[in-house]
Amino acid sequence: MDVLKQIIETYRHMIPTDCETARAIDRGASVEEICASATSDGLHDFAGALFSADIEVVQTNHGPIEADETLLDNIDQVLADYEHRLPPNCETVRLIKSGAQLELISEAAEAEGLHDLVAVLFEAEQERFLGGAS
Predict the structure, then answer these.
(1) Model confidence over 74-90: pLDDT tens digits?
(2) Residue 19 DSSP one-character state
(3) Dihedral class, residue 132 (left if φ above 0, else alpha if ψ from -120 to 50, else beta)
C-alpha cells in the first residue's frame, strides 16, 4: 500500500463521519480534493500530512534539482507545483498567485500547517541571502 493511502486510512478512523473530508475519502476523491476538504473542515494536521506525503511522492518521481542549479533558480516552478497541490481557497495559494514575497508566502504556509513548504522557502531565502541576490 502506498504512503498516501496509508495516511488516508489512518486518519479516516479519527475523522467524524458527518464532515466533508470523510465523505470525500469514502467516495474515493483525489488527494487534492481530500486536502481541500480537510482544510475546510479545520483538519490541518491531516491536510498537512497528506500534502507533505504527496509532495514527497512528486519529488521522488521528478528527481532532484540538477547539481549546477539552486533551489532559488527553480523557486517559481517549485511554487507552481505547490500551488497546484493546495486547496485553491487557501491563503498560501492566493499569495503564490499574486507573486508575493517569499517571506509572506512562508508566513501563510506556516499558519496553514504546511511545514514542508516553509522549509523549502527558508532554504530559498538562505540561498538568496548567502548568494547576495535581492
Answers:
(1) 788 888 888 887 878 88
(2) S
(3) left
